């Protein structure tokens, strides 16, 4: 049990450091951390609904909406009706893509270099393992914390 607790703590510390790096990076790049996350999502070249962004990245809907509204006024994004849905998809305009690339280029470079170094030392399988842990942790949180049952491990 102590080994498992220690492993969880090491993972949690590492994940918090990663979150902190993105937070501090956003600040240094002149954007809020939530805005950086949304820019990151939208710069993949696909259209996303505000709900998808909120659900996948765990950013409050009101925060996503506020940022998208501001970017729409600035001409950085456009909203388009989604087929068979009331949702509208958000995509970057040319101006938005240029701004996204300018902001995200150093971040992408840092991520790519860090990933290359990590994969040289370890298998790319670590990503799959982390995704599995995330899914299992989400299930446990939903069952034990979000549902209100409050069961704690023995």
From TrEMBL:
Superkingdom per UniProt: Bacteria
Pfam families per the UniProt record, alphabetical: MarR_2
Occurrences of domain HTH marR-type (ranges): 29-86
Signal peptide (UniProt feature, chain positions): none
GO molecular function, one term: DNA-binding transcription factor activity
Listed SUPFAM superfamilies: Winged helix' DNA-binding domain (SSF46785)
Residue ranges of the TM segments: none
Name of the featured protein: MarR family winged helix-turn-helix transcriptional regulator
């Amino acid at each position: 049990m102590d080994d498992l607790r220690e492993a969880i703590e090491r993972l949690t510390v590492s994940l918090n450091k990663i979150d902190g790096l993105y937070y501090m990076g956003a600040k240094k790049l002149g954007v809020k951390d939530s805005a950086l996350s949304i820019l990151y999502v939208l710069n993949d070249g696909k259209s996303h609904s505000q709900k998808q962004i909120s659900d996948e990245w765990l950013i409050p809907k009101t925060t996503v909406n506020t940022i998208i509204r501001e970017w729409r006024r600035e001409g950085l994004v456009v909203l388009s009706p989604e087929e068979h849905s009331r949702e509208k998809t958000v995509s970057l305009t040319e101006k938005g893509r240029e701004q996204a690339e300018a902001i995200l280029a150093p971040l992408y470079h840092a991520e790519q270099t860090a990933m290359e170094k990590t994969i040289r030392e370890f298998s790319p399988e670590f990503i799959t393992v982390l995704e599995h842990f995330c899914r299992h942790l989400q299930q446990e949180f939903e069952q034990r914390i979000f549902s209100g049952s409050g069961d704690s491990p023995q």
